[in-house]
Amino acid sequence: MKSIHLQIRFLVPLLVTLTVAALLALPLLDRMTLRWFSRDLSARGAMVAKTLSLAISDIEPNAKLDRLRGLLERGVLDERLVGIALCSATNEQILSTKGFPGSLTCGEAREIAKKQDPRLELSSGAVHIGDFPVNAQQADSDRLVLLHDLSLPDRRSIDTRRYMIIFITVLGLAVAGITMIVAQLSWRGWVSGMRAILRGEGLVRPLLQTGTGSAVADSAPPELQPLEVEIRQHLRELEDNLYREHGPLTPWDPERLRGLLRTQLRGDQVIVVSNREPYIHLKGKDGGITVSRPASGLVTAVEPVMRACSGTWIAHGSGSADRDTVDENDRVAVPPDTKDYVLRRIWLTEEEEQGYYQGFANEGLWPLCHVAHVRPVFRESDWAQYRAVNQRFADAVVAEARSDDPVVLVQDYHFALLPAMVREKLPKATIITFWHIPWPNPESFGICPWRRELLQGMLGSTILGFHTRFHCKNFTETVDRYLEARIEHEHATISYQGEPTLVQSYPISIAWPTDDERLRWPAPSEARRAVIERLKLPDDACIAVGVDRFDYTKGILERLHAVERLLEKYPQWQGRFVLVQVAAPTRNALEEYREFQDRIHRVTDRINQRFGSDGYQPVRLLAEHHDHAALMELYRAADMCVVTSLHDGMNLVCKEFIAARDDEQGVLILSRFAGAARELPEALVINPYHVEETTDALHRAANMPPNEQRERMASLRMTVREFNVYRWAGRMLADAGQWRLRERITRRVQRRAREGSEAIDA
Ligand code: F6P
């Protein structure tokens, strides 16, 4: 059917073109054939006139008229000659034959004969007029005027036209026929080529047939070969997405996530495990208790998912009032207002916290995975604590599980060993581990003395997720280098000791703000006024914000260098440009962090001394915790948000800034080394190590016209709204659902087979 449409689309214009060509060509052809006939008649006329002239000159003068008449009458016996007149040089008619019209004077006839088309319409038909001297040597010679019948050329012209039409029609039909056959053949070729590719034959069959690796070159038609690999890859991705999203293409929201849990996971219990807890209870100075939300990308992402799914979240109870707020089972319902899920706290001793968290996780794995020029430190004692704490959390998971097959969501590098530990006790559990930080290349990872144990622990997971495909690839290559495992790239699985793990990328995100939430936000102009007043900024300040944990991976030093260079290179910004840097306190117990934070304070002071003046400081370093509302106000007040991570799994600050800007204003400057840069190309993407490039991006952002800001921001907002955190969780849970279904079916089939063989034995 498609090929017929294709041919019709091709044939109709072809036929129209041929018809137009015929309509244009026929009059032209007509004119040409008449010109040829006219030339032919003139030549014939000249011959006749010459013959007659010779005869006329032989006639005796007194016998002249009668003899002449007889001569001319014989001349017109030629069927093509209608009439002849002998005219004097002064155009008097001396004599003429019968067929020569009486009304036509010699003068008129000779005038017409001079024309390019010497044609005269008579009642008896059209004639061609020729005018010839009787004696060519004599200037005042008599003239012979010959009238040739034009009905013959006219008849021939009609015949020529008819033949021409027949020729064009036959030609058109022949071209159309050939076109149809060629189109049909080549369409079939394409279709069968495409079908072969989709069936996988393009890759597989030639391999089987030839046993060589030149499958692609052998299989698809040559014109498809460059496309083949790409098309297959895209199709696989499409299929993958459809399979993951599984269901109507509605936006991802809490409701859809809950539906997915109900339908695909049959409402199975969800247990989250992370080091950082989502709510920290703290003792206030007045003896009261306050609740705080930690600065953590992990918490920002997983908390809304838990609100939607309910279940239990197991985390380290690190707040000074945490023990005062739990029940006898160390549980507390959170969030404090809606109590959607249970937070189960685990208490760690100082040694445990020191060895597992500060030591192995943050001095070892954190710099190991971030490759941010800080040497990882691996201590035997830290490793022992790391193992022990992983076991304690694993035991808590088993204790919290209400069935033998809960869905366990393991978060981050603090728990690399936990998946295998849980698997040992709950073999049927679905364990989804998400690694929130980058995964380095095999060489970098290889410096860890316990690399094999870490990989074995992680491969206890059913699904292992990273932010980007690049991190998945690094992980798979690391396993390939250090373990004996079966890797199936086609299915993105790694089977270790017979147990498969799906290794996939799931880019994390945020919950898109609800309408209720947005109603509580200040208008951008109000937010700006409030921030200017509170921080005592110039009224016309150009405000850049940076919001980070006070961590050496965030590129805060590089950001300060870029601000300093901006004020040097573009002095017009002195007195106006201000970087408001929020740096949430983190991991202060570690020397590396304390030194880094001191250095940032020193550089800030230097820049402020160099470029500051009364009432103006180019850098405002706010090294304290900010709650969500305060951050929203800052984001909405800002002219730009600056994210300069030296290496970051995803970075959710940039997504929060985008979500906050419902006025579609504000510019995002984003490090290309943050996972988010792959999703948000409308940001000004920079290399934070290149100070000049970041400086120019700051200058460009400060000068960007509102229209360009709007275009970029609108597009960024579309991406973040659609690719939100419910989609992140939904895709993982949908994959888990498929996995569980497959497992159940396999188990059932195996049981029946076993029962069958037992019956036969009996
Ligand atoms: O988002 C990455 C992350 O490492 C989380 O795993 C962690 O909760 C967060 O940063 C903050 O770190 P910490 O919990 O050590 O303060």
TrEMBL record:
Presence of the UniProt keyword Methyltransferase in the record: no
Family matches, as PANTHER family: BCDNA.GH08860, TREHALOSE-6-PHOSPHATE SYNTHASE
CDD domains in the cross-refs: GT20_TPS
Record flagged with keyword Glycosyltransferase: yes
Lineage: Bacteria, Pseudomonadati, Pseudomonadota, Betaproteobacteria, Burkholderiales
Name of the protein in question: Trehalose 6-phosphate synthase
MF terms in GO: alpha,alpha-trehalose-phosphate synthase (UDP-forming) activity
Sequence similarity: Belongs to the glycosyltransferase 20 family.
Residue spans crossing the bilayer: 6-29, 163-187
EC number(s) per entry: 2.4.1.15
Superkingdom as given in the UniProt entry: Bacteria
